[in-house]
Specification:
The protein has 346 residues and is α+β, with helices and mostly antiparallel strands. It has helices spanning 138-148, 163-169, 192-200, 214-217, 239-250, 260-269, 308-317, 319-331, and strands at residues 27-32, 37-42, 55-59, 61-63, 67-72, 77-85, 97-103, 111-113, 119-125, 130-134, 177-180, 204-210, 233-237, 255-258, 270-271, 274-275, 278-282, 297-301, 342-345. It has 8 helices and 19 strands.
């Protein structure tokens, strides 16, 4: 399967630079797979397509200010994006060693000087992802990262919003545990009032965690899709949630996955006929031809061409159908990417 077949053209003015306010006022494109029908609504109207007993599953990870800036000892500027702690422990316990990507490229042994007396040294260089050792750890490192770091919004967002406001926007209203370097953007459209309204109609909400790292936004670097290896990210499903979702599935309740990160987590934890619980690294790359085992519907955004998230969407909705929906979205001026509009595939 050729990567180029997942390319599409559009104009940059469709890239959303700001979220809809309120969040649920964004547009919602609804794709009915069986009927091959496309219709247009607002996200606040999503209840039209939900029924009592439906289970909406959300990723409750929380974004931290993972982009920090420093300089080389020679004076050149350096940008560092923290991905995850280095080593076996997936938890952000603010170890001094972190996996990063950076620009410009640095080699093993090079030192980075940050503000507030913080320094770092490149310990390992695998070509793209590197390991850095900071001069601080624990509570002090956390304090410095939150003080010096910036919200790791994608490069196509050119917002000049204050850091505090951007942190609010680039976060779901139900975010719980810090650990992500990118937002679970399909969840951006939910407001507390909308969740309350849907719960009152008998819709159930359950939460899992995938701390988003390189795997979610990593460019596919092989022309043959099947040869691409996605980077791992830490996922967690607690026992109570797994038990509930298994029972819901058994009794025919629809499992509605919010976002590609939630989808990859649910599908990866499904083994031998049931959803397992616990925590593990997830490196499941979903592309057309994949047979979905657990989810019944998908809430997602409009994704970058040739991205892992677009390929997952095509796997669930059907490539031709999804691409026809994208063309209709372009024609009707839908807003694309992280702060853009939403799609519901049922």
């Amino acid at each position: 399967m050729k990567l180029d077949s997942f390319d599409y053209k559009f104009t940059d003015d469709l890239i959303a630079q700001m979220p809809s306010v309120p969040r649920d006022s964004c547009r919602l494109m609804v794709l009915k797979r069986k009927e091959k029908e496309i219709s247009h609504f607002y996200f606040r109207q999503i209840d039209k397509f939900l029924k009592k007993g439906d289970v909406i599953v959300l990723n409750n990870t929380k974004v931290f200010p993972a982009r920090i800036f420093g300089k080389k000892e020679t004076g050149g500027k350096v940008e560092v994006l923290l991905l995850k702690p280095s080593g076996k422990s997936p938890k952000i316990e603010w170890s001094d060693k972190w996996c990063i990507i950076n620009k410009p490229n640095l080699k093993t042994g090079q030192k980075i000087i940050f503000s507030q007396g913080l320094t770092g040294k490149i310990l390992h260089d695998s070509g793209f992802e590197k390991v850095i050792a900071f001069s601080q750890k624990g509570k002090k490192l956390r304090e410095l990262i939150f003080k010096l770091g910036k919200v790791p919004t994608p490069p196509y967002i050119k917002s000049n919003l204050p850091k505090r406001k951007l942190m609010e926007y680039y976060q779901t209203v139900y975010a719980k545990d810090f650990g992500s370097v990118a937002g679970p953007t399909a969840g951006f459209h939910f407001t507390k009032n909308l969740i309350k309204k849907l719960k009152a109609k008998g819709i159930i909400f359950k939460y899992i965690t995938l701390h988003i790292g390189l795997g979610t936004f990593q460019p596919i670097n092989t022309q043959e899709v099947e040869k691409f290896k996605i980077s791992s990210e830490w996922g967690i499903i607690d026992r109570k949630t797994a038990d509930y979702l298994n029972k819901a599935k058994k009794f025919g309740q629809r499992i509605i996955s919010t976002g590609t990160t939630t989808t990859r987590t649910l599908e990866n934890f499904y083994k031998l006929g049931k959803l397992l619980s616990g925590g593990k690294y997830i490196d499941l790359f979903i592309y057309p031809g994949y047979k979905f085992k657990f989810i019944d519907a998908l809430i997602t955004n409009f994704h970058l061409p040739k991205s892992t998230t677009l390929l997952l969407t095509c796997a669930f909705g059907g490539k031709d159908f999804v691409f026809s929906a994208y063309q209709e979205g372009i024609k009707k001026k839908y807003r694309f990417y992280s702060f853009g509009d939403a799609m519901l595939i049922i």
